[in-house]
Amino acid sequence: MAADYLEELLDIADLDGDIDIDIENGRASVAIVADQAGTSALTRLVGADGEVLEALQELTRLAVQAQTGDRTRLLLDVAGHRAGKRTALVALAKEVCARVRTSGEVEHLEPMSAFERKVVHDAVAEEGLTSESEGQEPHRHVVVLAPTSDTAESAAD
Question: Which residues, including other chains, have CB under 8 Å from residue 51's CB and lie 6 or more apart?
């Protein structure tokens, strides 16, 4: 249903793109992709800082919900925007974890979208540290916590 909705949108906007559907961590993942020549046209569907992409994702979720009656947790990517963002966020999380381990101090990151916070939380957990989200939207952000003596002993084992 999401693919049909997005195909129709691409037709209306006269944009070339293919729809790839996958399941990622138990969540439907839908991507609009194009060959190299068509990628720049698709970036209009991303917008500044992914704002258009976020809105398009929500519209797609609502379209699916209208047809099924169930809320979906689908994740939409356009022209590899989220994939690139994920790579950068994982690298950031690793750098922050290294600093937190060295300094022993918590570190507050810049405000992020829910998608971005989830990526950072997962990456921090993979590094063996803990994190939490603080604040209210649109200023909600990730805090990477300093390792406790229990965490440091577990990491040493």
Answer: none
From the list 10, 28, 27, 11, the residue with the least C-alpha distance to 79 is 10
Strand pairing class (107-111; 141-144): antiparallel
Beta bridge partners of 76: 30
CA 3 to chain centre: 19
Summary mean pLDDT of the chain: 89
Q: β-strand 75-78 against 27-33: which pairing, if any?
A: parallel
What is the DSSP secondary structure assignment for residue 37, as one 8-state letter?
Answer: H
What are the tens digits of pLDDT across the range 124-141? 999 999 999 999 988 999
Does residue 77 sit in helix, strand or coil? Answer: strand
Asked whether residue 152 carries a pLDDT value surpassing 50, the answer given is no
What are the structure tokens assigned to 62, written together? 């609502």
